[in-house]
Amino acid sequence: MSDVLDMTEGRVRSQILSFFFPMLLTNMLQQLYTFVDTMIVGKGLGDDPLAAVGNMGSLTFLIIGFSVGLANGFSVIIAQYFGAKQFDKLRHSLAATIKLCVIIAAGLTVFSLVMLPTALDILRTDPLIVGDSLTYGRIIFGGLFATIAYNMSAFVLRSFGDSKTPLRAIIVSSVMNIFLDWFFIFVLKTGVEGAAIATIFSQLVSAWICIKRIVSVEFAKLSREDFTNPPSVYGLLMKNGIPMACMNSITAVGCMVVQYFVNGLGVDYTTSYAACTKYLNLFMQPACTSGSAMSAFTGQNTGAGRFDRVKEGLYVCVRISLVAYVLLGSVMVFFPRFLAGLLINEEASIRYACQYLPICGVALIGVDLLFVFRSAVQGMGYPFVPMCSGIMEMVMRVGIIIAFVGPIGFRATAFAEAGAWVVALLMNMIAFVRVLRSKMYPNRYPFFVKTVKE
Questions:
Q1: Domain segments of the chain: what residues?
Q2: pTM above threshold 0.85
Q3: Which candidate in 35, 200, 275, 358 could, as Cys together with 143 as Cys, close a disulfide (CB 3.0–4.6 Å)?
């Protein structure tokens, strides 16, 4: 019980930071073993297998991102009930979440496995890497139950204010994943299937550790009655989860369109893009983590009706994101060749990466702040604005890549990212200000619906 944190009372900054740092280590370790996985594939198997794994990035984001969005949306409701101290409703929501996740995991597994060959064809995947892409994708999508179980249990724990258990889970699974990557590829001499199996097995271990912790939390112990819920319980969860899931999937569609144009340029570009996106995902983790902290913090305080604390929490998370931008954006701007050389062997692919990384390094402030404002809006229970911003992200990403890939080539992929981030950030900033004002001054700004506690 000591890891459970009630963030509706006490000093805002110290609470957010104590919640943030374990979660940052969790996310960085998660990205680290993804990064090491990429390095082992690139250096151990070559650039073509690396391109095959990277080519699956947008597809895995589409499917896994959808499940992560659902988990995030469900956990917001649980966090609001935790903040309101309505533990009976919390248990009913948790039980309904478990049932929904089992159904969704089964559906997504079947859908992704059936559609994988068609999706690779739509993406214009080069014949050199189709075989490895299919092999890697079938294992990753076949193991969706493990991935969804970990993500859902980790989000539930964070809604309780527990960011330490997911950290312990990732420490164990990261060490295991890196060892298994090395063992499969360098000892057993497997191909990309070794990296995929290592990832799924590590996710199973992470899920087991998190689920074991949830079962030990006294107020979350479930009885048979908790699994007997009226449709309204499922409706509330889906109302909050579906828009967030759609936001991630809509964003993924935009990334798939970018991948389509990158693949059309040639395998060297696909390799470069795969490496660049790995760095981008790694370097946005501090801001992404501050967004996750903002979501849990906002959810609890929305349930408690403490919107003054929501405003103060936003300032803390924005400062975290600004520091991360200065430090990590600078690395992308000033050391692109060094970064590219860690993952890529061919000079041509390294040269293309040096075009992409500095542009995204300068624009990184857009996505860093986007994580914070979007999570704050979600945490207050308004998922449709982030979903609409996801649509605009897709429109900008697709529009820019179509308009500029001809005149400026591979650089258009970086400008597509930057344009998408800025538009989505502006939408969520405006929404946050309007929602917060309506909560703090309901008589002056009667725009939005009531909170859980109300």
A1: 12-440
A2: no
A3: 200
